[in-house]
Amino acid sequence: MRVPTVVIYVRLSRDSDASTSIDSQTAACQAYAESHGWRVLFVADDVDVSGASKLETREGMSKVLDALHSADYVLAAKLDRFARSVLEFALLSELATNGGATLVTADGTLGPDTSRLMTNILAAFAEHERDTIKARINASKAHLRTVGRWLGGAAPYGYRLIKRDGGTYLDLDPVAAAIVRDCADRLLDHGASLTGLVRELNESGTPSPADHTRRRDGRKERGTKWSTSTLRDVLITPAVRGWLIQAAPGKPRTALNLAPVLDASGEPHKVGPELLDAETFTSVRAALDARAQGRGSDRTGKALLLHVVRCAVCSGPMYHQRRNVDGKDYSTYLCKEGVGRHVEHPSNIVQARGLEAQTQAEFLERFGFFGLMHKVQSSGRDVARELRETDEALDNLAGNLAALAPGGRAAQAVIGQIESLEAKRATLMSEASTPVVTEWVDSGRTVAEEWEARTTEGRNAMLREFGAVVAVTPLARTAERRFSTDRAAVRFEGPEWVRDTDPDERRLMEIEMELALANE
């Protein structure tokens, strides 16, 4: 006599409740199958998966769908373990019927003989339950917006959730916050790039934001890696200001679409301490916007002399050609106008290792003992930043207002916020005529110390900050084919803090630098 076969399916949105855990669901289903004399083919599970998600997006459910033609029954602990969407449940029921399988639940709601009749009726109740939960969540979020508490969901990277005053708020996560601040500092003051930082984070084994949360909560990590998009989103989300945030209406919840939730006066709700202050946050966003070359692309590290070395014949840039043979570096810099079928001038190729060593030596010999300077805002309000934030808030509110019913309470609240922000903007515009005072201040490190601490990307940025230009002449036909410093002329326009001053003051600083160099 043939023994009926069954596939057990268990699902949980969050594996924390012992009463509905994966283990308890599995045990209930196995006991049910044993009591009916069914042979279990396998158990498929989905953890951290919503019942409203599509069937094909669930890894465990995909295994169940593949086995519908070989199993007599598909067994779950309860109806809502299959799905909480009437459309998805109807689809599963249809697929099971076409495959010759019957949906059954261990709690007796769907039995082997009553399944066909009950599925359509009970699916409607599952959908009704989901709508009720959704309405309750939306009402709760609307209330939390008015009182300035966290709206729910995971905390942004760099924060953790805490309970106080009867609500949920953000507090700094010391480990993650230190990583965010270090990345911001290295982007702004040490010439780092997103690509280089991501590479270092992954090489050092620093958990990605998702795995950091899992490790902190005692859950199993998935081994996900940092990407340039992930790090960029961590740095540009307004949440790092300690603000309550939400996605713009009708847009996905990504960092680029997040905006602060505003109070009645049009100011952002604070739900936690600042991870990055206003000046740092604005500077990081501006720096990343200026460097943007397409999000998520996989790029290798920069060569030391990228955008620094040029051909002495045509003044065009020379490009780095990476080449390693048996562990030895044979990389070169070459001018594209001197290679190929349609050359413009004699071939101009130079050994990268030798040219980089020469440039580094001349740079440190000339500037290594200088104190490194940084530009900072020395006094006054950053009116330009406040204006940008105010304009962004006005744009977001205008978009929200367009989606609201005219004359309703929500629309009236948004109109009040817009009026408050318009008044603030008028005040800021009147103050905008007062220039923001900036100055160069000593970083507390010498150029040589900073050079030693930087990566290749950071050193490349430092050379460009000092106006470095390396002009390379082609190798003479009769010359020996080895690197010679005579082929390269290295010059520097000088530090940016010197070039940034007025001509008279700059000349005095240049004289002081020449005297200092002469005394070395």
Task: Please summarize what this structure is.
This protein has 520 residues and is an alpha/beta fold.
Spans where pLDDT lies below 50 across 5 or more residues: 293-300
CATH superfamily of the largest domain: Putative Large Serine Recombinase, Chain B, Domain 2
CATH architecture label name of the largest domain: Alpha-Beta Complex
CATH structural class of the largest domain: Alpha Beta
Beta strand count:
18
Report the average pLDDT across residues: 80
Q: Count the helices. How many? A: 17
CATH topology name of the largest domain: Hect, E3 ligase catalytic domain fold
Roughly how much helix do the residues carry, as a percent range? Answer: 40-55%
Main sheet characteristics:
4 strands, parallel
Radius of gyration: 32 Å
Q: Strand content of the residues, in percent?
A: 15-25%
Q: What is the terminal separation in angstroms?
A: 99 Å
Biggest sheet: strands side by side, in what order? 2-1-3-4
- The secondary structure category is alpha/beta
Count of domains = 4
Shape: extended
Q: How is this structure best described in words?
A:
The chain starts with a strand and ends with a helix. Helices cover 44% and strands 17% of the residues. The model is unreliable at 293-300 (pLDDT under 50). Helix 4 packs antiparallel against helix 5 (115-147) and helix 6 packs across helix 10 (278-291). The chain is built from 17 helices and 18 strands. The chain is extended. A four-stranded parallel beta sheet has the order 2-1-3-4, sandwiched between helices. The protein has four domains: 5-131, Resolvase, N-terminal catalytic domain (Rossmann fold, 3-Layer(aba) Sandwich); 148-299, Hect, E3 ligase catalytic domain fold (Alpha-Beta Complex); 309-374 and 438-519, no CATH class; 381-435. It is an alpha/beta fold and 520 residues long.
